[in-house]
Write a structure and sequence with these properties.
Layout (H helix, E strand, L loop, with lengths): L13 E4 L7 H4 L13 E2 L6 H7 L18 H4 L6 E8 L8 E5 L5 E6 L2 E5 L7 E4 L9 E9 L15 E3 L2 E13 L4 E12 L5 E12 L5 E13 L4 E5 L3 E4 L15 E9 L3 E10 L4 E5 L6 E5 L2 E3 L1 E6 L10 H13 L4 E4 L8 H10 L2 E5 L22 H15 L5 E5 L8 H10 L15 H5 L15 E3 L37 E6 L6 H7 L9 E4 L5 E4 L2 H5 L24 H25 L7 E5 L21 H9 L3 E5 L5 E6 L5 E11 L5 E12 L3 E7 L11 E10 L4 E11 L8 H4 L6 E10 L2 E10 L14 E4 L12 E3 L11 E2 L3 E5 L7 E11 L14 E3 L4 E3 L4 E9 L5 E8 L2 E6 L2
Parallel strand pairs: 21-22, 21-29, 22-23, 23-24, 24-25, 26-29, 36-39
Antiparallel strand pairs: 1-2, 1-3, 3-8, 4-7, 4-9, 5-6, 5-8, 10-11, 11-14, 11-15, 12-13, 12-16, 16-17, 18-19, 19-20, 27-28, 30-31, 31-34, 32-33, 32-35, 35-36, 37-38, 37-41, 37-42, 38-46, 39-40, 43-45, 43-47, 44-46, 47-48
Length: 926
């Protein structure tokens, strides 16, 4: 008997345009199989789009580079045949005994004909649905199989409006779409796991099955602890599909799954297996599962949508997600980087915007791992239906039944992920009435999830009278009809999200900036670094904007055509906001422009989130930024670019969204402490120091013995400076929140500020100030993985033991994402000893020479591949890199720990470089 197993067919594919293949699908999979990438056949990208395959084979230019996308013919002009393609591969699958095999497709856009060994099957239409074909009687006895798939584009692909828009299973009985649900009692001390699964009997006789459910947790050393094992006997009639619900499994004090910043993302592995009498093991399914309960209601105080996880309110800070990649070159590795970036920014929610798609399961898996709640939208958006010139179909989609079929399939695919928080019908509009009614009905909550969990047993008393919650299509998450309804924006569907342009930083703190409790989209700038511009555009795209002075004294930015095409958003809003880059002086070239843009990015996004958090629970319940990232080489609204290099806005968000955070209210000049955790902060202190451009400490004060309640933002004191007589036009402000017993730094926040009516132009000559640095580093290497621990000190002034400023003991979160006050650990500012399982190099000390006292301003690291034959302008960056901090500043005598982690391509030697506002030549650290 052959082995039961699954094989992923994502490599070894060939592709060819259908009009260039003069053979039928039967011939391709019998007598005339293509032997390799010979005309018209080429290597294919799977998963990916037809365009991704054409780009890989240099048949069309890279659409993400410069204006090259303009030269690619649109399907509206070429016709559907031009983008109708054959895909071909071979695979080995040898059966024995009474085994069965299915050929499964995750999704095909939009319909297809499938040929296997001369046999034809037609797949029904629909981009977001899965397909499964029983090919048991078609696979070859010798195990060698020929597979050809003719993929057709959508029947009515449409035209972009002028203004644009943003393997095989072997089994006689198959496990289909299991559903896992948890219910809690006794204040989350007891939990039940509910499991329902579909079973399909493909044989011609009754299948007597032993159906097993196994729940395990992983412990140290790679071992697993069995939490539950249950076996049930099930009889499945011949050719039948049945639903079976296990008796509920009981757990006492389980480890809970929490969103990022609230606790650990504890996951259990649930495995369902079926053995058939007379056959043996038939099918196996497993999934990571987190015990958690998500509740959602409209908050009576703010009118905003309020989320609770495991009974604790969650202040939502996150962003809108478009696609991983515009050509659908989807990969597990890219997903992991993307989601970890969001965790690194201290975000706790991602909104999968309705103009995109339901990503592959790996996306949601990493949201589970890193604690990112997911707002999942279905595919209704005015960008595709009801808007544009001419106006598109206002009642779209065209095929309502197909849409609902795809929606149900998506729910079944994603519903077991603990990160998934809610379903939303559409972006800025609701689905047509029949679709909306069907989604409301089919995604209605199970009665258990309509009531808040109480400490008593009243819910458990009525629970036996209810249907098992795992028998619902979902039943555990709310369905909201649209992104501006029911507690989001104005709640009524009026266009009340946004704005989407540059703002004065202090505006975010003002009461009239945004009226409603939860803003699903507020956007701003997103210029990447200069190296990314050079890597994604030819030289004519390196020209910085023209700054056009208007009669009303505002400045209008006029970008070059390539920036315009790539959706550049200006750093000025004539009539409302003066140009924020020109505050630092007129940029001289691309490098200067992009560096000043990073300063603005940092200030803009830190202020946005701090402004929202300043009114946590009193005015707001959450905010989602438009947008997190770009699926192409866009130039707006992003925290990291398509090449995976972060902007400084990334680190502004990281600072502002800390679970425990000290901040300056830019409207009132009160210093505030934000505590989003479930624990009260006690015995903490705030240290305030202000510095001028000469390195003098103008103001120093410590506020001790503070207590900050849980889930509160508390104003502590009003800053005297700059109201005092000791004024300087530009100054630096450093805030530190300490845990008094061990001087552990809970939060650190550094501002550069100017007096009202002023600007930052005095920072331009500050570039010439040479401030000395001492950087001690150690490298840990494990295969291709590199981790670097760096201790960075501004040595321009000796530490003063009489104040807190130099008692630098850094608080770090647990490596698994846990965050609670009891688990905070103060880490000494020394390089840690060699990690287990890796190779550590000796300590290396690098000194950046300088003789002046002052702030080392806006330091940022980058990692490059060292090349002896480096060419001028060549992009040598190693990406992605995960930094514990970047774009940071150090006061005289101050020190910080910075950790870097990245993977090095084979044969490449990495080099780490530090630059800064006043370290602009670049210094190699390693």
């Amino acid at each position: 008997m052959g082995e039961m197993g699954k094989r992923k067919l994502d490599t070894g594919w060939l592709a060819a345009r259908s009009t260039e293949v003069k053979l039928t699908g039967v011939e391709l999979t019998t007598t005339h199989a293509p032997s390799g990438p010979d005309q018209p056949w080429m290597e294919a990208v799977v998963p990916g789009t037809v365009l991704a395959t054409l780009v890989k084979n240099n048949l069309v230019p890279d659409p993400f580079y410069g204006l090259e996308n303009e030269s690619i013919i649109d399907i509206a002009d070429s016709g559907r045949e031009y983008y109708t393609f054959w895909f071909f591969t071979t695979f080995h699958c040898k059966l024995s005994g009474n085994q069965h095999v299915d050929l499964n497709f995750r999704a095909i856009n939009y319909s297809a004909e499938v040929y296997l060994n001369g046999h034809k099957e037609v797949l029904p239409k629909g981009m977001f649905r899965r397909h499964s074909l029983d090919v048991t009687d078609i696979v070859h006895p010798d195990g060698e199989n020929l597979l050809a798939v003719l993929v057709y584009p959508p029947d009515h692909p449409g035209r972009i409006p002028p203004e644009g828009g943003q393997g095989g299973d072997h089994e006689p009985v198959k496990i289909v779409d299991p559903h896992l649900v948890s219910s809690f009692f006794d204040s989350y001390k007891r939990v039940y796991l509910h499991v329902t699964t579909g079973l399909v009997n493909k044989s011609a006789r009754v299948a007597e099955c032993s159906l097993n459910v196994l729940v395990t947790t992983e412990v140290k050393g790679g071992f697993c602890l069995v939490e539950h094992l249950r076996t049930e006997h099930v009889s499945v009639p011949p050719g039948a599909s049945v639903q079976y619900t296990f008796p509920k499994l009981s757990f006492y004090k389980p480890h809970l799954w929490w969103p990022n910043g609230m606790g650990k993302q504890s996951l259990y592995n649930v495995e369902i297996g079926v053995e058939v009498k007379g056959f043996g093991e038939s099918d196996m399914w497993n999934h990571h599962f987190g015990f958690r309960k998500i509740e959602s209601n409209i908050d009576s105080v703010t009118g905003g949508r309020l989320f609770k996880v495991n009974g604790q309110p969650v202040f939502i800070r996150g962003g809108n997600w478009i696609l991983s990649d515009g050509l659908l070159r989807l990969s597990k590795k890219r997903y992991q980087t993307d989601i970890k970036f969001h965790s690194d920014m201290n975000f706790n929610m991602i909104r999968c915007w309705g103009g995109g798609l339901a990503e592959r399961p790996e996306f949601y898996h990493y949201c589970d791992i890193y604690g990112l709640l997911v707002w999942q939208e279905f595919w209704i958006t005015g960008d595709c239906d009801g808007r544009g010139v001419p106006i598109s179909n206002p009642d779209g989609p065209l095929d309502h039944e197909l849409f609902l079929l795809c929606a149900r399939d998506t729910v079944k695919l994603l519903r077991n992920h603990p990160s998934l928080a809610l379903w939303v019908g559409g972006n800025e509009q609701v689905p047509p009435e029949d679709i909306n009614t069907a989604l409301k009905d089919e995604l209605k909550l199970h009665p258990y999830f309509q009531i808040s969990t109480q400490s008593g047993n009243s819910q458990e008393d009525i629970f036996p009278l209810l249907d098992d919650p795992s028998q619902y299509l979902d039943g555990t998450r709310i369905y909201i009809q649209g992104s501006m309804w029911d507690g989001f924006a104005d709640g009524k569907g009026d266009f009340s999200d946004g704005p989407y342009e540059i703002q004065y930083p202090e505006s975010f703190f003002k009461d009239d900036f945004y009226k409603y409790g939860f803003n699903p989209e507020v956007g701003s700038v997103g210029m990447p670094v200069a190296a990314t511009i050079r890597a994604t555009m030819p030289p004519e795209g390196w020209q910085i904007p023209l700054f056009k002075k208007l009669s009303n004294d505002y400045v209008e930015e006029v970008p070059n055509p390539m920036w315009e095409y790539h959706k550049y958003i200006a750093y000025s809003k004539p009539g409302l906001v003066h140009d924020q880059i020109l505050l630092y002086g007129a940029p001289t070239d691309l490098d200067d422009f992009c560096l000043k843009a990073q300063l603005v990015n940092y200030v803009q996004y830190r202020a946005l989130l701090e402004g929202w958090t300043s009114r946590m629970w009193s005015k707001y319940t959450g905010v989602l930024i438009w947008k997190n990232q770009n699926p192409w080489t866009g130039l707006r609204g992003q925290f990291y670019d398509h090449l995976h290099d972060q902007t400084a806005g990334f680190y502004g968000c990281r600072s502002a969204a800390e679970p425990i955070h000290v901040q300056l209210n830019l409207a009132t000049y009160f210093v505030e402490v934000v505590n989003t955790t479930s624990d009260e902060l006690s015995n903490v202190a705030i240290e305030v120091s202000e510095w001028d451009l000469e390195g003098n400490c103008l103001y120093y004060k410590v506020f001790e013995n503070l207590t900050i309640p849980s889930k509160r933002t508390v104003p502590i004191f009003e800053m005297d400076y700059p109201k005092s007589n000791n004024q300087t036009p530009v100054y630096f402000l450093l805030l530190k929140l300490y845990n008094i017993p061990d001087y552990g730094i809970l939060s650190r926040n550094f501002y550069w500020l100017y007096l009202p009516g002023g600007d930052y132009k005095l920072l331009e000559p500050y570039k010439k100030k040479k401030v000395p640095l001492k950087i001690t580093s150690e490298v840990f290497i494990d295969g291709s993985a590199h981790e670097i621990r760096m201790h960075v000190r501004n040595t321009s002034k000796k530490p003063d033991s009489n104040n807190l400023l130099y008692k630098n003991r850094f608080i770090e979160r647990d490596s698994d994402g846990d965050f609670d006050v009891a688990s905070l650990e103060a880490v000494n500012s020394r390089i840690e000893e060699k990690k287990e399982g890796g190779e550590a190099n000796a300590l290396r000390v690098t000194e950046v020479n300088g003789t002046e006292v002052g702030v080392a301003f806006f330091l940022h690291f980058s990692v490059h591949a060292w090349k002896p034959d480096h060419k001028e302008g060549e992009d040598t960056r190693i990406l992605p890199v995960h930094y514990s901090d970047n774009y940071f500043s150090l006061a005289p005598g101050e020190e910080m720990l910075v950790n870097l982690s990245f993977e090095v391509p084979p044969g490449v030697t990495p080099r780490v470089t530090v630059r800064g506002w006043n370290i602009h030549t670049g210094h190699t650290i390693l």
